[in-house]
Each structure stands twice: as C-alpha cells, then as structure tokens.
Amino acid sequence: MSDLCRTADATTRTAAADAIFPPVAGCSVEQILTKPIAIDPGALPSFFIVGPPRTGSSWLYEVLRPHALLPSHSKETRFFDTHFHRGLKWYLAHYGRSGGDQRMGEVAPTYFASGAARERIALTVPRAKIVCVFRNPVDRIISLYRVKRAYGWIPWSFAEAIQRDPELMESGRYASTLKLWQRAFGADNVMPGIYDDLWDDPQGFVDAIGDFIGVPRFSLADWQYGFVHDSDRMTQPRSYYRTRTATMVANWFKARRMDRAVSAFKRSRFRHFVLGGGEPFPKVSEELLTQLQKEFLREVDDLEEMLHRDLSAWKMRDERLLMAATSE
Question: Tell me, which fold does domain 39-236+279-324 have in CATH?
C-alpha cells in the first residue's frame, strides 16, 4: 500500500468522496481517508487563500510570510489539486520550520476553481478558514492568460485560449463557485474580498484578512505598498518550446520537493533565456472584450447581491478596461 493510503485523516464523509474521486495511486479514496496517520491537527493549515489567480495572491504571500507559517521556497504546493496522491508527508515537508504560535496556511490561487481541491480540503481540514479575492473578471482573465502564455503553459492566442483552456473561464464564475466554498465550509468560514480594495487601501485589506485568519495586525513597509502597484510588463516567450520545456522541468523539480532549486533559478540571470524576450501581447479586440463582459455579467450581478457591494465598475465599458487589455 502506498504512503497515500496512510496519510489522510479519518472521516465519515468517505461515501461522498468515493462519488467524487476515482482511485488514486492504487488506493480508493475510502482507503485514503480512513487510514489516519498520527498527526497533530495543529500541524495542518488553518487557512487557505484560494484565489482565483491574478488577484494579489503573490503580494499576500510576501506580506504574510513573516507573520504566518507558509510553504517555503515556493508559494504554491498544488497539493490539493495536483499532488494529492503524494500524501500529507509530501505536503507538510513544504513547511520547513515550526510556526510556534503563528497560524499555518497556504496561498493557493489554483484551488478556487478546482472542485477536487475544495472537497479534499474539506475532507482533510474541515474547519479551515477560506479567503477568496475577486477582481474585475475581464481584467483578471486577460492577466491570467498573459501569465500562462509567458510561462509556456499554453501556445494559443487569447481568443483561442478562452475556448480551449477551461480554467480561464471557470475561474471567473465568482458567485457560483463562492457558493460552493460556502457550502463546503460554512459561510462564516469563507471570507470574500475585493481586489479593488487592495489597490485603494493595502493596509486595510491585509488587516481584514489577518483578522479573519487569526494573524495579529502588522504595519506594511513602504516597499510593500509599491509592490501592489508594480506593473509586471510580461511579453510572449521568445521561444514557446524552450519556455515550455523549462516550465515542465521546474514542475518536475517541484514535484520532488526541490523548490529551492527552482527559486534559485528564478533569481538568476539565466531565467532570461527561457522567460520573456518575445513580442508584446497584442491588443484584445473591443468585440471580444464586450463578449467577455456579457459572459460574466450574471456572475457579477449575483456577487453584488451576495456581498451587498456595488460592482458596477466591473460592468461598464470604459477606458480603464481597454488599458487592461494591453498592460498589466
């Protein structure tokens, strides 16, 4: 029997889990979840900032890292959506030190739209605090596409990508997916935040999140304010296949808990051989922008009602939206 069969907490929800997950690594989910290991519940995260992607998660990771116990060397473990079969021992190895009195958590933007991640977290850490941050969905989908294209995850134009990459559109189903997180953890344990508030008041934004997840308040440094408004002007890769290969190699290293090597490479001058250097991203057509805005209109309306928050700026065609199509 693999390590996975011995690494998850016992639960009474295995029947539901079997209906959701196929066998993994030779073990049924019932085996995975009913073969507990001797682990202190305090050794598991108490909070997850689940995204969706391109909503300030990198900034939150950097500012929370001195004040909470987060995975080291790499922000995202991808455990609950991609590496769950590797078991809790693999996952907890990313937390390289004891947190003492610090809250333990993970900033994991890919979890938001992943039904598997949501259910696995609920089965493993059912009382976890969940934070979701929402951004103008059209701005965000353009930003996410650019990151995926820049890192060689996808080869397509923007118009092709929104048809062929499910995550781009699914991660924009804000209200529908928020309801699923609330159903899994209870509405009181799920905090929705708005990316606009991060831009307008970074200190107030992080104070609110810290209060919710149990991290004592702290003052942001001057450089951390600047980081919020930093513009990362990505370009398309100089060579898609070279960038794609480098990304696959990095993922291979991460799967073997060699995140330190990946981080060192990202800080080195060699990263420029595989990242960037290509053509600027072309402007997205106004027709496509309007199409996307209509596609997400119902979700934005529902989110307004859920949060009792005016999000009309997300529903207007204006110069700011056109600028978002060509700059980060």
Answer: Rossmann fold (3.40.50)
3-state secondary structure the chain: CCHHHHCCCCCCCHHHHHHHCCCECCECHHHHHHCCCCCCHHHCCCEEECCCCCCCHHHHHHHHCCCCECCCCCCCCCCCCCCHHHHHHHHHCCCCCCCCCCCEEEECHHHCCCHHHHHHHHHHCCCCEEEEEECCHHHHHHHHHHHHHHCCCCCCCHHHHHHHCHHHHHCCCHHHHHHHHHHHHCHHHEEEEEHHHHHHCHHHHHHHHHHHHCCCCCCCCHHHHHHHCCCCCCCCECCHHHHHHHHHHHHHHHHCCCHHHHHHHHHCHHHHHCCCECCCCCCCCHHHHHHHHHHHHHHHHHHHHHHCCCCHHHHCCCHHHHHHCCCC
Query: So what's the pLDDT on residue 15?
Result: 33
- Taking only the tens place, the pLDDT of each residue in 244-290 is 787 778 777 777 777 777 677 667 776 776 777 788 889 999 999 99
Q: What is the pLDDT of residue 241?
A: 74
Residue 208 pLDDT exceeds 70: yes
Residue-range domain boundaries for the chain? 39-236+279-324
Report yes or no on whether pTM surpasses 0.70.
Answer: yes
